[in-house]
Amino acid sequence: MASNKQSNYIRKERIPVSSAIPSARLVLSSLPGRPAPAQRSSQNESLLTNHFTCEFEKNLPLYQYDVAIEELGSLSGEWYEVKGRARCALTMQSIVSNGGFASNVIVWYDEQKCLYSTSQLSSPILIHSRNGQSRLNIKSLANQWSTDDIQNYIAGEAEEYPYDAVRILETLLKKSLQGRIQVVNNNCYFLDEVAKPVGGGLYERLGFVQSLNLSSRRITLSIQTKLTTFYPEMSLLDFVHIHIGRKRVPNEYECKKLSRILKNCLIVTQQSNWKRVFEIDQFDKRRPSEITIESGETLIEYFKNEKNIQLTQTNYPCVQVYLPNEYDKPCHLPLEVCRIQPWQVYDKPLSKAQEAQQPRKYIPKPYERYNAIMNMLRKCDYNSRSNRLCREVGFKIDDNQMLSLSARVLTQPQIETGPNSRANVRIGRIPLDGHLFTPKPLLTLAITYFGNDIEREKDLMRAFTDTLLQVRINGELSESFVIETGVMQGGIPSPVLFNIVFDFIIRQVLEEASLTGFKLAYDSYDFYHDVREKYEEFDILTLMYADDLVAMCNSINDLQKFILVFEKVTQKYGLIMSVKNTSIMSLQYFKQGINGKIFFKSGSRST
């Protein structure tokens, strides 16, 4: 029965897209000026920007030092340099907070190999932590700048942009929020900001990116908000349960989905006290009892004997992982000893199911963007007295209002495509519908027949060449014309012609690439052969039909070499390789043992 109840769904108001230019006269030295409008626009606007006026203390020195965070080896008793950013940052924070520097000395650290200060420090010098297990090694003074470098550029007294001084001050602004934000890929996220679930175990966080900008007579801080999807910080087993919706073993289809979602995701392991990092490659359908290591132990035995960990979730599949940047050494881990490393960006497209769980995406309205930016800046609270770093460099910002400028809204451009025919801008696009060109008539076509018996096919060819055709142009049919010669795409001769041309081109590719290809064996069996069988081995590199090509190589390097040579030679003859329609499949060699058991042949791959 039909219902008269109206839906509560309210369509979001579409925001019209328009353009505007500043009303101020700009002096352009290299770009042509915009022509004056034919008719004066009556619509003027005051546009808010995402810039805020700020200032720093004048003539303030900025020192940069080359440093290293070092730890004392428990076994060797020797000092070694710490590599991890997070560990370096924690050690540096501990040294500063525990009185490693004089009370009147302000320093900030970029978590790499640079220390900044407004004070000149002695170097080289070693500053030890309170427990004596770590230290800061200040090696040397690398360089020195001043806030006057920025002021001179703004005043037009210097031509070179002060990149280093700006970079040091941008680092200071981030470090002034230390303990309150997490910085990921230059984007800042407040730790107390509640993450919003987006389905499938993933979360979305609102963050911001900021940068200093030097303009005429002023410094501005620009702030832009950004929504980012993250992996959750949880055990890998819990993530699997959340993703599939139940606490059970995932099936084969779900494992494939998990492999796609967790590809390249970083995890830490229980046996390393959650310190050693691995990168997920894929889910392996084998269980811990079915995977053996070099010693012959299963994963269950290895974790019990070597790591003193008793595995309990042995019905779950394992994950194949790598150490970062060591992709030729795969290993396997049980799910229950893995934990997802925090603050990892999920940069893959969301699935349809995940998108369905979210509100429909739409362009935020101006007041929504304005409120988001203003709230983010007020939360930073750079003018607070407790912000010691900002007070040290005399940083002040006008966080009451964004900068605004007067602008003239441009009239919508129109393009004449014919008599009484115009193409208007629609959501940033101009549909031309092919009106900007005049098609040339096809006066002569040619056809070539490659066949065995022309007499037998003569009637068919005559019927084909005598066919009258009309071409539809802009919705109108052209005059009829007779096909006397020519080849139609998809016709009988078409693949033959492609084979002839392609054969000529591929012969040059093979000669220049000098690759043997893939080794196959021919006999009555499909894949495996023992010494008693009679079979012939042969090399195959390419399979071709018409304009389609399959290349088979023994390694990624051979495949890359073939593609480079193929692209160079084909472009010489006016052909372009379709990247969109090109796919790569990687296969693993298998080998059959004496007892008929099939196992991997390590180190062999074909692509």
Layout of secondary structure:
Blueprint: E1 20-22, E2 44-48, E3 51-55, E4 61-72, E5 79-81, H1 85-97, E6 107-109, E7 114-117, E8 125-128, E9 134-146, H2 147-154, H3 163-175, E10 181-184, E11 187-190, E12 196-199, E13 202-215, E14 218-230, H4 236-244, H5 252-262, E15 266-269, E16 277-284, H6 299-305, E17 318-323, E18 326-334, E19 338-340, H7 352-356, H8 366-380, H9 388-392, E20 396-397, E21 404-409, E22 414-418, E23 421-424, H10 458-465, E24 468-469, E25 472-473, E26 476-477, E27 481-482, H11 493-513, E28 518-522, E29 536-540, E30 542-545, E31 548-551, H12 556-572, E32 587-592, E33 598-606
Antiparallel strand pairs: 1-21, 2-21, 3-14, 3-20, 4-5, 4-7, 4-9, 6-7, 8-9, 10-11, 12-13, 13-14, 15-16, 15-19, 16-17, 17-18, 22-23, 24-27, 25-26, 28-29, 30-31, 32-33
Helix pairs in contact: 11-12
Describe it for me?
The chain is α+β, with helices and mostly antiparallel strands. Helix content is 22%, strand content 29%. Among the domains are: 236-341, Beta Complex (paz domain); 416-486, no CATH class; 494-606, no CATH class. It is built from twelve helices and 33 strands. The strands form eleven sheets. Strands 4, 5, 6, 7, 8 and 9 form a six-stranded antiparallel β-sheet that branches. Strands 12-13-14-3-20 form a five-stranded antiparallel β-sheet. A five-stranded antiparallel β-sheet has the order 18-17-16-15-19. Helix 11 crosses helix 12 (556-572).
